[in-house]
Design brief:
The complex is a heterodimer of chains A (343) and B (522). Chain A is built from 14 helices and two strands, in the order αααααααββααααααα. With 343 residues, chain A is mostly helical. Chain A has a domain of 181 residues. Chain A has a two-stranded antiparallel sheet. In chain A, helix 5 runs antiparallel to helix 6. Chain B is of the alpha/beta class and 522 residues long. Chain B folds into three domains: 162 residues, Rossmann fold (3-Layer(aba) Sandwich), CATH 3.40.50; 161 residues, Rossmann fold, CATH 3.40.50.300; 80 residues, no CATH class. Helices cover 33% and strands 24% of the residues of chain B. In chain B, strands 6-7-8-3-9-10 form a six-stranded mixed beta sheet, with helices on both faces. Chain B is globular, with a radius of gyration of 25 Å. The chains are: A mainly alpha (343), B alpha/beta (522). Chains A and B meet through helix 9 and helix 10 of A and helix 2, helix 5, helix 6 and helix 9 of B.
């Protein structure tokens, strides 16, 4: 019975403004409505604490390392988040990033194409894969989890098949220039991460298309009834996610100066973790770029910090998993705060 | 009540329906040979649950695809089953479930899917224009921006406020035909009066309002014309002067009802379920007794708490107060499992969603509740399971080829019988039924009534919630009428008439007093 939301008759027009509450409750509400604030605070705290214990942590050289790492995880997380905002998930981004690196290197080295052309073709292929994901999800109702898992498997296999398992050497210097250059002291990949974040923020917050993506993720039926082209909006997020994965793949081969077929798979989980830590709800419709970027930064600060503190690398995954666990716990606490307003 | 407007404008036909009909399975839920809706009128629509009101509205608004017939809006044909097409022709519906995006702001919800009229960019969000237009839309229906801050997330707002936002959203589309589906059911008296005022204003501005009401006094107050639906047919088309409350109820329930032969109410048998002052979210206080071999019905309108009472007794919804006893033992379920252990079987309302695994076999579906009993430790015994399934299916007369066929391949009535078989197999003391005949055809209904009778004959106490009065009248020893979460009247079979039940169910006398603790403000 759907009309269970029967209300007691009320004597006055309900005033939705919250009654004056204790400041603790107000703080709770602020944190519940904008979890980004909490993640940003966590970034600052983690940075300050680790920097105090390990002096090398805040050195320029280390910050540059973190900046380049961040480009990988952060750009993947932004694309991944777009998909999650619509209520989907993209498991293919890590493997696709790996395949993109292999493809770009293969076009450049084995097919002899100039580097810019190789990059362009690679990005177009990735975008086409995203389009395919979107079409399968919106036209045939294939669960996003399944269709992107297919791509994950195929992409991982293709990387190995193309290279027969051996890395491709001799790629154009343009690739490493993309990854190794600095503007002033800031590594280019870090700037690309910032650029991707700004573009995504602008698209989501300042354009109708972005707002409609939130609407589709928040309540698909409401969006459909309001005349929003839900299928196209969902598909666009898969295209963006795959294209950004392609970009990451190209940055990675530049950084290593070799296209290694074994890199990539596994990154999708870090990307998803960054999104969730940053306040993106896995049910869709909720999460902002500031939080996603902060989530990616927090994970990188912790990962790098553990090295700086000489913690065994084997513990890294344990810590990352624990951070994700805490983030999911907080997400559910927040959901309960809003009560039955959501699933 | 206003007189029928004599203004010539009111003669213009806004919507013309010819031969519109709709069936769900074998049940024809709407059949309207001819209906014209005129401009400048508020047209009230009343009928019992399942009379076809919502189907009529959905057909017009495009959310329900009609099976046949034509609808013209201002002379243009309305394509079936498309809300977009209906919207283009100026038909807008405010439904009971508000399609709002909880995570987005009030302003964005109000302008969902379109740009503010004064927006500067084509693609870029002009948040100032958005806010301004949202505030105008609220002001348009008489709400101040101070009462509803347009920047708040919708999910943080109480349900009545959301309803008003939904109305503002519909109003802002400047519809020709505005459909309001029980718009006041979640509102307090002040906002309810506002909504009625808006309906009148729309009509006086030359538009048409189709107003589905559950409170007859409201419908009579606001309407220029009242349509009464029964079993999907238009049975009365009344002018305001004719539409007295008694007349409306009489038309809604139809003429004489063929009562089934009254059954003797078991006296002296043990009380199986005793409820005292039971309360839960949106329910109570309720006090009720059900004896062994007795069938007690729960009647009431949508949202009156019928299902909630059933669910609370079953342990599926937490009680917030009061006490229950099962055969003189205190019973305070913490979950449905406590209910089943205590000897309660629940047959829920939604067969597909809550009862069945459609693609699994009949055998596994009907034995799922008794697997512990028919297994050796944790190991299943396939042969024994199949034999039990055969026995269960035979007991309730499920027509099938084999117990191994998927239960989803059976007809609705056969599926429901299988579910009864599963419930009987647990040998319950108390059988809880929620809408036991929804979606089954007439023949199958009779067989399900027989099964309910048999349950009572076997000594079970039966509590059955139903929106169909005939059903309750023909099978129950007593009928408890619910209104706003409480049982307002318990009527013995011999004294029960549809009129009496409807009057109690739609009664307004006690509604303005303090209501039960239904704190559904999410």
């Amino acid at each position: 019975m759907t009309a269970q939301s029967q209300l007691a008759p009320q004597e006055t027009v309900p005033d939705p403004r919250p009654r004056p509450r204790a400041s603790g409750a107000r703080l709770l509400r602020t944190l519940a409505e904008s979890p980004e604030a909490g993640v940003i605070i966590a970034c600052v705290v983690v940075f300050v604490v680790i920097a105090a214990k390990a002096p090398t942590y805040s050195s320029v050289a280390n910050l540059q390392v973190m900046g380049r790492d961040l480009a990988q995880v952060g750009i993947l997380a932004i694309g991944e988040s777009l998909v999650i905002l619509t209520g989907g998930i993209d498991l293919s981004v890590g493997a696709l990033a790996g395949l993109a690196g292999i493809l770009a290197a293969w076009f450049n080295v084995d097919a002899g194409l100039p580097a810019p052309v190789a990059i362009l073709i690679t990005l177009v292929i990735c975008a086409a894969i995203g389009l395919w994901h979107g079409a399968m999800v919106t036209r045939l109702n294939v669960p996003p989890f399944v269709i992107t898992l297919v791509t994950f498997t195929v992409a991982q296999g293709l990387s190995l098949a193309i290279t027969s398992g051996t890395p491709i050497n001799g790629i154009d210097p343009l690739f490493s220039n993309l990854s190794a250059y600095y503007i002033d002291t800031v590594p280019v990949p870090a700037l690309l991460f910032v650029a991707a974040a700004v573009v995504a923020w602008f698209a989501l917050e300042r354009t109708y298309i972005g707002r409609q993506i939130y609407a589709v993720g928040g309540n698909k039926e409401a969006a459909r009834l309001a005349g929003i082209p839900t299928g196209r909006r969902i598909t666009s997020t898969y295209v963006a996610s795959s294209a950004l994965a392609g970009l990451v793949g190209i940055l990675v081969i530049g950084r290593m100066n070799v296209a290694d077929p074994s890199v990539g798979p596994g990154w999708e989980l870090i990307a998803i973790a960054a999104a969730v830590v940053g306040g993106v709800s896995l049910f869709g419709g909720e999460g902002r770029i500031a939080g996603i970027a902060a989530g990616a930064i927090l994970l990188e600060l912790i990962a790098n910090g553990l090295l700086a503190l000489h913690v065994s690398p084997y513990f890294q995954q344990v810590v990352q998993g624990a951070v994700l666990g805490v983030a999911i716990l907080l997400d559910r606490v927040r959901a309960n705060y809003f009560g039955r307003g959501r699933r | 009540m206003t007189e029928v407007p004599t203004d010539p404008r009111s003669r213009a036909v806004v919507a013309r329906l010819r031969g519109v009909h709709k069936s769900y399975g074998p049940v024809r839920v709407l059949d309207l040979p001819e209906l014209d809706l005129h401009a400048g009128q508020v047209i009230g629509v009343v009928g019992e649950n399942g009379a076809g009101k919502s189907t009529l509205m959905g057909t017009l608004a495009g959310s329900v695809r009609r099976d046949g017939g034509t609808i013209e809006v201002d002379g243009a044909a309305l394509e079936p089953g498309s809300t977009e097409a209906a919207g283009r022709l100026g038909v807008t519906m405010v439904s009971q479930e508000f399609p709002l995006v909880g995570q987005m702001s009030v302003a964005e919800n109000l302008l969902l899917g379109r740009r503010p009229r004064r927006s500067r960019g084509r693609y870029l969000v002009d948040s100032r224009a958005l806010r301004a237009e949202a505030e105008e839309m609220l002001a348009e229906i008489g709400l101040s921006a101070a009462a509803i801050p347009v920047n708040r997330q919708v999910r943080a707002l109480p349900v009545p406020t959301r309803q008003m936002i939904e109305i503002a959203k519909a109003w802002g589309r400047r519809p020709r035909l505005l459909i309001l589906d029980e718009p006041t059911s979640s509102l307090g008296p002040v906002e309810a009066a506002m909504v009625l005022g808006l309906a009148r204003r729309h009509a006086e501005g030359g538009g048409t309002v189709l107003f589905i009401g559950h409170r007859l006094d409201e419908v009579r107050e606001v309407s220029d014309r009242v349509l009464v639906l029964r079993n999907g047919r238009l049975v009365a088309d009344l002018q305001p002067g004719e539409a007295t409350e008694e007349r409306l109820i009489r038309e809604m329930v139809g003429g004489e009802i063929a009562h089934a032969a009254p059954k003797a109410r078991p006296t002296g048998s043990d009380v199986v379920l005793r409820i005292e002052e039971l309360t839960a979210d949106g329910l109570g206080p309720v006090t009720l007794e059900v004896r062994a071999g007795e069938i007690v019905g729960l009647a009431g309108l949508m949202g009156s708490g019928r299902s909630r009472l059933i669910h609370t007794v079953a342990g599926a919804q937490p009680a917030t107060g009061g006490r229950m006893w099962l055969a003189d033992t205190a019973y305070a379920p913490r979950g449905p499992r406590d209910g089943t252990t205590a000897g309660i079987a629940l047959i829920p309302e939604d067969r597909k969603e809550q009862s069945l695994v459609p693609f699994a076999s009949i055998s596994s579906n009907v034995t799922v509740s008794i697997l512990e009993r028919i297994s050796r430790g944790v190991l299943l015994e396939p042969r024994r399971q199949r034999d039990e399934a055969q026995a269960i299916a035979a007991h309730v007369n499920v027509r099938m080829q084999s117990v191994e066929q998927p239960i989803g391949s059976l007809s609705g009535g056969n599926q429901q019988r299988a579910i009864f078989g599963r419930a009987f197999a647990t040998r319950p003391r108390l059988l809880l039924l929620d809408e036991p005949t929804r979606g089954v055809d007439v023949g199958a209904k009779a067989e399900i009534y027989e099964l309910i009778d048999r349950a009572a004959d076997e000594g079970m106490a039966v509590l059955v919630a139903s929106s169909e009065l005939e059903e309750l009248l023909s099978i129950c020893h007593r009928i408890a009428v619910m209104n706003h979460g409480r049982t307002v009247e318990v009527i013995d079979h011999g004294d029960a008439t549809k009129e009496r039940i409807m009057t109690a169910a739609a009664g307004t006398a006690n509604l303005t007093t303090t209501a039960p603790g239904n704190g559904a403000i999410a």
